[in-house]
Amino acid sequence: MEKTNFKGKLTKNKALLGLVAIIFLAVFFLGASHKTVIINADNQVIEVQTVSSEPEKILEEQEIEIGEYDRIEAPSEDNIRSGEEIRVHRGREIRVIDGGQEAIRYTTWNTLEDILEELEIELNSKDRVNFDLEETIEEEDKIEITRVREGNREETVELSYSTEVKYVEDLDPGEERVVQEGQSGEMIETYIDTYENGEKVSEKLQGHEVIETPENEIIEKGEVNHFTTADGSRVEYSRKITMEATAYTAGYESTGKRPGDPGYGVTRSGTRVRPGVVAVDPNVIPLGTKLYVESLDGTRSYGYSTAEDTGGAIKGNRIDLYFENLSAAQRYGRRDVRVYVID
Predict the structure, then answer these.
(1) What SMART domains would the database entry show (predicted)?
(2) Is-contact 55 72, C-beta < 8 A?
(3) 25: in domain
């Protein structure tokens, strides 16, 4: 009888079992790493089988090209799991005017806020945009950014001095002397200037500070004839006359002329009648003389006037004051006045 080689058979069986185990493990791990991934690109959704975990490699396997301005959206950059989705967002052109400079940019987002973030465009608190941050920007839209900047500015302003006149008795009328020279002052004004896209659009005075106070010029003058008007003004005059005053209008009751008649409303000097025109005797007050007519009965003074007219009844120390309507002239009547010649 032949002898059986049990030792050789045992070794051979062990080798066979090891090979089966290796094949089993290889199939197991290969099956475990194989996955189904969803790709959403170019308006198409497809399912693909892959063993890759990186989105770019998976897209490359499917010959899906990614451009310079495209964006890949995936749950993970290097560990895509079965059932997960990879989205490809294609870059699109968009017109952006930033601070007056227009350029074509590319974006994969839709709302203004996301677009600005992607393009790394920062807005200051005062900048303006022609869309709200939440608005969707369409391809035909144009994003306009107005850059607003404020700056402080200081400006030096000269403060003019005033002239103070003092009348004294130790100088002859008309003679004067300077007691104190006037000196201008200085003030600093602070402005806030607003610029839009580099151009100044407004300025606002923020405040001011007087650096040097002006000093008034003081002049002494010899006492001259003067009177004080109702508003407190001091007026010099060459002479004064007490006169009898009446009132007239341009109408028929005063001049015998009606609208349309030659010379209606025209003074002896050739000017048009108006409040402030008075009629005088040229032998007493020459035509063209500047006057101030002061009331003596406590009523309102006629005030500053000019001798431009004459009248048949206006002789000697008489004066006729022009009024625009007949009722006002009739109410004035006849009264004494003081007439100052201020030429």
Answers:
(1) G5 (SM01208)
(2) yes
(3) no
What is the C-alpha to C-alpha distance for residues 119 and 140, in angstroms, rounded to an integer?
18
- Domain final residue, candidates 201, 222, 243: 222
Write out the chain's pLDDT in tens, 343 residues.
444 454 555 555 565 666 655 554 444 444 446 899 999 999 999 999 999 999 999 999 999 999 999 999 999 988 999 999 999 999 999 999 999 999 999 999 999 999 999 999 999 999 999 999 999 999 899 999 999 999 999 999 999 999 998 888 788 877 899 999 999 999 999 999 999 999 999 999 999 999 999 999 999 988 778 888 988 888 889 899 999 999 999 999 999 999 999 899 999 999 999 999 999 999 999 999 999 999 999 999 999 999 999 999 999 999 999 999 999 999 999 999 999 999 7
Q: Which of 222, 247, 282 is the last residue of a domain?
A: 222
Q: What is the CATH number of the domain that holds 167?
A: 2.20.230.10
Q: Domain total for the chain?
A: 4
Q: 146-174: buried (b, 16+ CB within 10 Å) or exposed (e) per residue?
A: ebbeeeeeeeeeeeebeeeeebeeeeeee
- pTM exceeds 0.90, yes or no: no
CA atoms of 166 and 105, how far apart (whole Å): 76
Task: List the domain range (segments joined by +) for residue 130.
Answer: 92-146
